[in-house]
Write the structure tokens for this entry.
Amino acid sequence: MIKHLLSAADLDADTATLILDTAGEMAALAEREVKKLPTLRGRTVVNLFYEDSTRTRISFEAAAKRLSADVINFSAKGSSVSKGESLKDTALTLQAMGADAVVIRHPASGAPDRLSSWVDGSVINAGDGTHEHPTQALLDAYTMRSRLGKLDGLNVAIVGDVLHSRVARSNVLLLTTLGAKVTLVGPPTLIPLSPGAAVSYDLDSVLPGADVVMMLRVQTERMQDSYFPSAREYSRRYGLDAARMRRLPEHAIVMHPGPMNRGMEIAPEVADSKRSTIVEQVANGVSARMAVLYLLLGGKA
């Protein structure tokens, strides 16, 4: 098993499948009266978040606590980071505290990789800049497999602001490793070159052949320039509404990593429909992250 999870590229098909299978076993815990395992008792997991987060941070905290680990939540706001402390000095502090795993979210691409050279424990990338978010890709793959029964051969359309999406990058890497076919859809200004994925600028032409449609939020906070004429025009061409949803095959599902801009990239009636897996993705995130922590820290034991 790998020591760190910095990129979805760190996972070969066998390792990724092992994580997904383990996540399935962890999901069964949710049906038990006592939803805890003693596996990581005595281990310390630090959530080191330099960016705001709701789903990911709480998900990692819940995952670690269900495995009986001690959890330290470290927020950049209100810490020595706000006084100018460097990532390296923060890492050395965590090292001195004996952290067995550090879950890091950072606005700079590559920060988790640098951190892994400064601490002895495992480092898990919870999102770095516009680079990657590998555990989101794992929970997305787990959700697809749970709903559709397989990943190999699935046609997955990832729609929207791919350029700024670390979720999209990790999903392309992981899904192609597991045999799915990925098509990136959006305006030309928001679709970067991505080896292994097809590209389309016409959402309506892609929908009839898609098994999965993953809608992405337009990340205006990362945009200094205008990438499309207007929000209304973007929604008209690339928003998923009820009429477009009817173009999908009967078995197809709709996904979104959150947070959503309801009414822009996804209509409320689509987000709340039976095809939507958005709430499931949140629940599956805990199971997938439990699997990652278990296999990185306690699987051998």
In short: Residues 134-277 form a domain with the Rossmann fold fold (CATH 3.40.50.1370). The mean pLDDT is 92. Strands lie at 44-49, 70-75, 101-106, 122-128, 155-159, 181-185, 197-200, 212-215, 253-255.
